[in-house]
Amino acid sequence: MRFDDAYSGKVFIKSHPNYDESQAVIYGMPMDWTVSYRPGSRFGPQRIREASIGLEEYSPYLDRDLDDVKYFDAGDIPLPFGNPQKSIDEIEAYVTKLLADGKIPVGMGGEHLVSWPVMKAVAEKHPNLAIIHMDAHTDLRESYEGEALSHSTPIRKIAEHIGPKNVYSFGIRSGMKEEFVWAKENGMHLSKFEVLEPLKEILPTLAGRPVYVTIDIDVLDPAHAPGTGTVDCGGITTRELLASIHAIAGSDINVVGFDLVEVAPVYDPSEQTVNTASKLIREMLLGWVK
């Protein structure tokens, strides 16, 4: 990577030039093959990178600067267009290699199905893994219109893989009745509508555990993030989401990976959503990569 790439929009701002010396690796998962409403999230990762050049490098919330964290932007994983299964396999193999190298995976989606192979790979590395999931939607379906590979299924898949009691969902305000019933009957933690206060109650119970955090941008109200594939009114504010990120940063959990998904830039010509996403990633990097 050339020195000027750090300010060119080709990589996330202040990306470290050396993979081996970096603690975390940012990578894009440009896939939207299974969306049920509006496609376009495959363009999210690169637009977030481009928006990041407008960020301040200093976080007044955390009193840290991007120079304090070494992260490498590896670009987007080249995924086979229209082939969900092969795309999932390639994502899992890619993240498995990152974990073998001792890196913290930092993913940018892409639809939410891309989180499933990442969480699966992280669970293999960290057997006592817990998942923190922030989203408007339950994502607990077994299938959508008969298709098991769908962006409405990743949380069901990881819950069945590591046990529902190890999955904690927040901000949920949409889903089938059967999904809410399944979560309750199987002991999964599911907080409707709010994120910050129920999250603060849960964090002490996860102290010392490895945790993967997956955030769907649509946990935010469409007024704050209109650039997403499945908008859903009644969401949280950017202020609450930032406070939730900072609550995790101030806790005793061990964040071993994280992602931000479902940014679809085409539906937000104001670029509000990609700018918000880039700031959220800055705060996650500064708060969670110790």
Describe the structure.
The mean pLDDT is 96. The protein is built from eight helices and ten strands. Helices cover 31% and strands 18% of the residues. The protein has a single domain (3-288), classed as Ureohydrolase domain (Arginase, Chain A, 3-Layer(aba) Sandwich), CATH 3.40.800. The chain has an eight-stranded parallel β-sheet with strand order 4-1-5-10-9-6-7-8, with helices on both faces. Strands 2-3 form a two-stranded antiparallel ribbon. The chain has helices at 44-52, 84-100, 115-125, 154-162, 177-185, 196-202, 238-249, 272-288; strands at residues 24-29, 58-59, 64-65, 71-76, 104-109, 130-134, 167-172, 189-192, 210-216, 254-261. The chain has 290 residues and is α/β, with parallel strands linked by helices.
Topology diagram in text:
Layout: E1 24-29, H1 44-52, E2 58-59, E3 64-65, E4 71-76, H2 84-100, E5 104-109, H3 115-125, E6 130-134, H4 154-162, E7 167-172, H5 177-185, E8 189-192, H6 196-202, E9 210-216, H7 238-249, E10 254-261, H8 272-288
Helix pairs in contact: 1-8, 2-3, 3-4, 7-8
Family: Belongs to the arginase family. Agmatinase subfamily.
Keywords: Hydrolase, Manganese, Metal-binding, Polyamine biosynthesis, Putrescine biosynthesis, Spermidine biosynthesis
Binding site for Mn(2+): 112, 135, 137, 139, 216, 218
